[in-house]
């Protein structure tokens, strides 16, 4: 799993006025993101949005929140995902955020984030409302952007009118997709009473998505009016269990995970959770036995092979890790996160030219993976392509909100790259953003 405890762009909304800045984590994992895509696809289609264009990603934050920053990205806090008890609950959150996109609520935002699929664009958009700082921690080192609470609440907060509209539209999307509307009621019930608390004690969702008894009653009435009994979708049930199980296995203690590994009734998920717990306990033998058992049950599942690669890579078994990632890549040749992991393993194995090819393929599909920008810059530098290394470093700093550092490397790239080339233009984009923020 690349539950990348990546101190990348901090999109958090939970910071209160008493805490001026805090570093948080953007979690990038191909398995979890695939699960969220599977759960979100019917809802997004019902909203008239392209499921292949809207990414659903997880922010490492224990409180409950979800938000959108542009028309292509929905962010869900890990704390909210772990509090969901059914796929319908999680899908109702996605439907509500999709409604903010479909209803054009982002148009009033004070920032034009352009297209947040570009790492630098997303980072520089956030930098306009946040101070940035470097940091490291967790599974990997990265860059942390500290977000000032008041500015972020102002940026992300929705009006009650928008919330009412998103509630109605979201319920319509759920009904059209054949999803139980009671999931939305259960989510609303989680936040009842929040508005009576002091701001510093409220969950971020209550501060950015104004709640009210009227909203709860309206959603309850819409659910009660549902004319048919909706049976759970087996595929949605499986991917919900898998996403929540994998997230909890990395965030809870190994002991907690091992005692609950089989709670969802899926043998492959049970073995996956056991593999993660044993890996975190530095027990490679048991971790491999468990993940191999999961793979035996789903031999063509690229995400299980990717997890096997991570276990081996983090245990410094480089060549077996390369083989595991190669298998995952063969099964999912278009998955940017898997391609990035394979490239990283190849780089560690000294296969620099091949690593650069896979890392570039990963970057071209998803320019927001901080590790890919870092690793590809290293590969390009080792290949003597200093201009490319500089533009990649500039984008990485821009994504972290470190615009002064980004400007230095973008200027260096501009002097090394052929004028007018695609890479040179990427450097100009970073320079333009950096200068605009001065």
Using brief descriptors, characterize the structure shown.
438 residues; alpha+beta; Zincin-like; four-stranded mixed beta sheet; two-stranded antiparallel ribbon; 7% strand; disordered N terminus
How much is the radius of gyration in Å? 22 Å
Uncertain segments: 2-24, 110-117, 124-156
The assigned structural class equals alpha+beta
Mean pLDDT over all positions: 81
Strand content: 5-15%
- What's the name of the CATH homologous superfamily of the domain at 25-224? Metalloproteases ("zincins"), catalytic domain
- Output the helix-strand order: EHEEEHHHEEHHHHHHHHHHHHHHHHH
Pfam family, one: Peptidase_M48
Keywords: Hydrolase, Metal-binding, Metalloprotease, Protease, Zinc
Domain Peptidase M48: 35-221
GO molecular function: metal ion binding; metalloendopeptidase activity
Task: Please explain how this structure is put together.
- The chain has 438 residues and is α+β, with helices and mostly antiparallel strands.
- It has helices at 30-46, 78-83, 87-102, 119-127, 149-156, 160-176, 182-190, 204-208, 213-224, 234-251, 254-260, 267-280, 284-297, 302-314, 318-331, 336-348, 352-365, 370-382, 386-399, 403-416, 422-436; strands spanning 25-27, 55-60, 66-70, 73-77, 133-137, 140-144.
- The strands form two sheets. It has a four-stranded mixed β-sheet with strand order 1-2-4-3.
- Helix 6 packs parallel to helix 9 (213-224) and helix 19 packs parallel to helix 21 (422-436).
- The chain is globular, with a radius of gyration of 22 Å.
């Amino acid at each position: 799993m690349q539950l990348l405890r990546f101190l990348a762009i901090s999109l958090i909304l939970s910071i209160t006025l008493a805490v001026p800045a805090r570093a948080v984590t953007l979690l990038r994992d191909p398995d979890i993101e695939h699960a969220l895509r599977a759960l979100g696809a019917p809802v997004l289609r019902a909203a008239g949005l392209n499921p292949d264009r809207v990414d659903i990603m997880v922010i490492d934050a224990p409180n409950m929140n979800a938000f959108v920053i542009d028309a292509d990205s929905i962010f869900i806090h890990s704390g909210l995902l772990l509090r969901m008890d059914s796929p319908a609950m999680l899908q109702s959150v996605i439907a509500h955020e999709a409604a903010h996109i479909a209803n054009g609520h982002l148009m009033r935002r004070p920032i034009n984030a352009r297209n947040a699929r570009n790492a630098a664009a997303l980072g520089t958009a956030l930098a306009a409302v946040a101070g940035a700082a470097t940091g490291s921690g967790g599974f990997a080192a990265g860059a942390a952007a500290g977000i000032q609470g008041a500015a972020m609440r102002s940026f992300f907060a929705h009006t009650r009118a928008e919330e009412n509209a998103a509630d109605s539209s979201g319920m319509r999307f759920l009904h059209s997709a054949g999803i139980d509307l009671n999931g939305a009621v259960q989510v609303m019930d989680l936040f009842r009473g929040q508005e009576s608390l002091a701001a510093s004690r409220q969950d971020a969702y209550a501060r950015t998505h104004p709640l009210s008894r009227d909203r709860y009653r309206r959603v309850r009435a819409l659910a009660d009016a549902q004319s048919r009994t909706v049976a759970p979708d087996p595929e949605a049930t499986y991917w919900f269990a898998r996403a929540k199980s994998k997230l909890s296995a990395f965030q809870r203690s190994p002991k907690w995970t091992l005692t609950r590994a089989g709670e969802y009734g899926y043998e492959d998920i049970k073995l996956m959770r056991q593999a993660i717990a044993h890996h975190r306990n530095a027990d490679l033998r048991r971790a491999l036995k468990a993940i191999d058992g999961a793979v035996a049950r789903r031999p063509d599942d690229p995400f299980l092979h990717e997890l096997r690669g991570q276990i081996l890579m983090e245990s410094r078994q480089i060549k077996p890790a390369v083989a595991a990632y190669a298998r995952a890549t063969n099964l999912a040749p278009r998955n940017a996160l898997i391609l990035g992991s394979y490239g990283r393993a190849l780089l560690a194995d000294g296969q620099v030219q091949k690593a650069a090819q896979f890392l570039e393929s990963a970057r071209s599909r998803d320019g927001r993976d901080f590790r890919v920008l870092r690793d590809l810059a290293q590969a390009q530098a080792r290949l003597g392509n200093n201009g490319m290394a500089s533009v990649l470093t500039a984008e990485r700093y821009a994504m972290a909100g470190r615009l002064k550092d980004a400007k230095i490397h973008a200027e260096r790239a501009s002097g090394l790259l052929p004028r007018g080339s695609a890479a040179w233009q990427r450097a100009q984009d970073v320079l333009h953003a950096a200068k605009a923020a001065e």
